[in-house]
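Service request form, structural biology core

Requester: graduate student, group of Dr. S.
Request type: structure prediction, single chain
Budget code: on file
Notes: please return the result as structure tokens.

Sequence provided:
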Amino acid sequence: MKSRLFLILYAAVLLSGCATMSPENTTPDVIQQNLSQADQTELNARLNTIKDGVPSVWQNSEGNTSFDLTTSNTHVNGQGLPCRNYTLVIDRDYHRKITTSAVVCREDGQWKNQQDI
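Core staff response, request fulfilled:
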């Protein structure tokens, strides 16, 4: 089962550049399902290391998408798992920005949606 990190680009935007993003297709679940493995790995690594309130910005290996990740409210939940809120802004070619937010917790080394744990 793929880990759920909840971020980054909807496939239509990644592939076509002409899709219209609507609220129902920019949810963390939909965005996560359409991340490349490299983007998932990078996101997980940054969720492990960045400090709350300090933006972390990077560009994907294809060079056509940039990511701006900010975390907040890092805490330990009732199950003893480290959790944090995040906001991710994805900037695709032609400056099509998508913003998504979620609460994720680290379980078995992967950040997952708090509701899935």
